[in-house]
Design goal:
Helix content is about 45%, strand content about 15%. It is built from eleven helices and nine strands.
Length: about 290
């Protein structure tokens, strides 16, 4: 969902409203230089506040020590009774976020390629040795282990290397700011990469993270979207209005995508009113 400040009462009401209105999960992004909560800390708080809602994050992977990350996520999954949902992302390519992540752009992909198999092994309870940029360690066995066996991770990204990486390593794909046609084409590449690696990704594990505007997009936003996605109609990337959002989700469903993280572009005046409108507009879609 949209930006949240550090008011625990606001987060608590949002968590309660999501649960009451039938939403599956709370998703918090990790953007170091944005006015957003740290997802691990906030999701741990949400897990203690509510015993049912699933806990999702799009989390930075480059720049992290792999053992510490494995321990943190295993702990959160254990304490939340297996409610954790993780999508790893390389991070934004724009400053100041690019500098804050601390890993140069060309190094991000290799760091992810190095870390992902190690996370699998650590969460499986193996004793692991490794020497590389994501950590140097001998005879490490993680405990406690996650409740989920395995603790799955999805990946984001649309560039060819990200699609190949998803096919080789991930349990699912959650791109953002894409059209249904782009998502469908990416899914083909991922399925082919998975097959070449001797594995398969469940057809139920393809989703989209989709920003939307409750009303018409402001001219400045239209111009920004036009600059970032030249040749693409902004309305196909950021639906404006609940009818347009529903139509976009139906278009993604038609090309094989069934999981959706939806978020308003701006923080609404009332989260409860926004969630009620959202549930009424798209809550009956069959996924």
């Amino acid at each position: 969902m949209g930006p949240l400040d550090g008011d625990p009462a606001v987060l608590g009401r949002l968590v309660d409203d999501l649960d009451e209105l039938g939403f599956d999960s709370l998703w918090l992004p990790e953007v170091l230089t944005a006015p957003t909560l740290d997802p691990l800390a906030a999701l741990a708080w949400a897990a203690a506040h509510n015993p049912r809602l699933k806990l999702g994050t799009t989390m930075l992977l480059p720049g992290r020590n792999v053992v510490r990350l494995a321990k943190q996520l295993a702990t959160l999954d254990r304490l939340s009774a297996g409610r954790l949902l993780v999508t790893f992302v390389p991070g934004l390519a724009q400053d100041p976020e690019r500098g804050a992540v601390g890993v140069a752009g060309p190094e991000k992909g290799p760091r992810m390629d190095e870390a992902l198999p190690l996370l699998r092994r650590l969460w499986a309870g193996e004793t692991v040795d490794h020497d590389g940029p994501v950590g140097s360690f001998d005879q490490v066995t993680l405990a406690p282990l996650p409740v989920q066996e395995p603790l799955e991770f999805w990946l984001g990204g649309m560039v060819p290397a990200a699609l190949e990486r998803c096919g080789r390593y991930a349990d699912g794909w959650l791109p953002s700011a894409c059209t249904p046609a782009e998502a469908a084409a990416g899914k083909v590449v991922i399925d082919e990469a998975a097959s070449a690696a001797g594995r398969a990704i469940s057809p139920e594990h393809f989703g989209v993270s989709l920003a939307y505007a409750p009303g018409p997009l402001e001219p400045a936003m239209l111009a920004a979207l036009g600059r970032s996605r030249r040749g693409v109609d902004p309305a196909t990337v950021v639906p404006a209005g609940y009818d347009a959002l529903r139509a976009a989700l139906e278009a993604f469903l038609a090309v094989g995508f069934s999981k959706f993280v939806v978020r308003p572009l701006a923080r609404p005046d009332s989260w409860r009113a926004e969630l009620e409108a959202l549930a009424g507009a798209v809550g009956d879609l069959q996924t």
